Each structure stands twice: as structure tokens, then as C-alpha cells.
Amino acid sequence: MTSKKLSSHRSLPVQIARILKIAGLVITLAALFDILILSIPYQMGDRQWQIDFVTSIVDRGIVPLVGIVIFLTGYGLDSGLDRGMESALEGRSERRAIWQTPRFWALALSSLLGLVYVLAFPLHLYNVGQSNQAALEEVNEQGEAAETQLSDQVTQEVEARRQQISQLMTANEDQLNQLISGSQLTQEQADKIKAFKAKPDSVEPFLAQQEEELRKQVKTQIELRKKTALEARKTEDLKSGLRIGIGSLLLAIGFITVGWSGLRNLRQQ
């Protein structure tokens, strides 16, 4: 009679404990498999892959932590019920070795994940620093390539202006006035052409000055692009380093606290 009452009284908590254990197991395994599958193809030696992998495990790290805690909660509830039943029935069951219990493996997994997150913190900071240096070199290379390209364009622009001035210098007064009235030439430009016709030697110094101004504009434009690109990259790397670094440390603390404290209590039981 007493056994039937105890069994009836115990049925609901047992179901809750079983649900918690199954839910915790499913959540943990699903999160770990998600991380492993999303990391395919594995390229351990590639810096960007390492950055993406650490980012992935940190972004999803809270899920297996919650899953392990839920599993351990269910297991603890179930173990408490078992001890209560043994006490009520004044019976003893053979005690299994620590490593034979599912709780031990859950705590071991938590400790292992804690170690992974401890190692992930310096690895991510190192990779972000190296990636930032590589980005700096890439921006400089792109800047040099752009400077060469724009320098060629400046040379072509100056040559085009030289040809245009040469053609306009052959025009007479009436032709220049027609160009002005047709809005193809401004009065200032026409006066400049007249000055060139009066003093042809002034054309090349004028073009040299124009080329120098254009090259200064090109250099300023390239420096501005490089500065903008570098500042944007530094900001992104800083955000990534802080977010992933702090997240990794917090997860490491969480996993290690659950794992090591649980293993210590398990040995004392």
C-alpha cells in the first residue's frame, strides 16, 4: 500500500525530470551539431575560417550551456527522487562508478567546452589583429593601384587639354566669339586662348600647373578613401574583438563553473 502511494506521488516529478533531461540533451546536441555543420568545410589553417568558427561558437554558445543546465536540473531532480524512494523503502542500490553516470559526462562536456572558450579568446584576438594588419596592407596596395590608374587618367586629361588649346589657338576672333555665343567656350577661356596666342610659351607652364593641381586632388582623394576604409575596418575589428572576446570569457566562466563545481560535488557524494 505504501509502495503504491509513493509511486503515485512520484509519477509527476519523474515525468518532469525525464522531460528536462530529454529537452536538455536535445538542446545541447542540436546546438553542437549546428556549429559543426555550419563550419563545413573545415579549414583549420585558414585565418578567416578560424575567425568565423570562433564567432559561430560564441554566438551559439549560450544554447548548449542552457541545454546542459536543463539536463543537470532534470538529472538532479531524478536523483533526488531516487534517494527519497530508497530512504522510504529502507533499501540500498549498488552505487555506480562516477564515470558511469550521464551526469558525469554532461559535467565533463561542460568543462571541455569551458576550456574551448578559454582558448578561443586569445585565438580570436590574435586572428583579428593579424586580419587588421592584412587589411591595412590590402588597402595600401589598392591605394597604390588606384593612384597609378588615376595618374594615367591625369596624364590623358592634360594631353587632351593640350590638344584642345592647340586647336583653339588656330581660331580667329570671329570663331572664338561664335564658340562663346554657342556656350561652347566661356569668356574667361576665350581670354586665356588669346593670351596663349600672344605668348605661346606660356601654354606648357599653364598645363604643368594644371597637372600638378590634378595630381594633388588625386592624392587627396586616395588618402581620404584609405583613411575611411581603415577607420571602418578598425571599428569592425574592435567591435568583433570586444563582442566575441567578452562573450567567450563569459561562456568559459559559465561552462567551467557548471562543470568543475559539478564534478567536485559528484566526487564528494
From TrEMBL:
Q: Which domain of life is it from?
A: Bacteria
- Transmembrane helix as a keyword of this entry, yes or no, is yes
Which keywords are on file for this protein?
Membrane, Transmembrane, Transmembrane helix
Q: Which InterPro entries match?
A: HpsJ-like
Q: Which residues cross the membrane?
A: 20-42, 62-81, 102-123, 244-263
Q: Could you identify this protein by its name?
A: HpsJ family protein
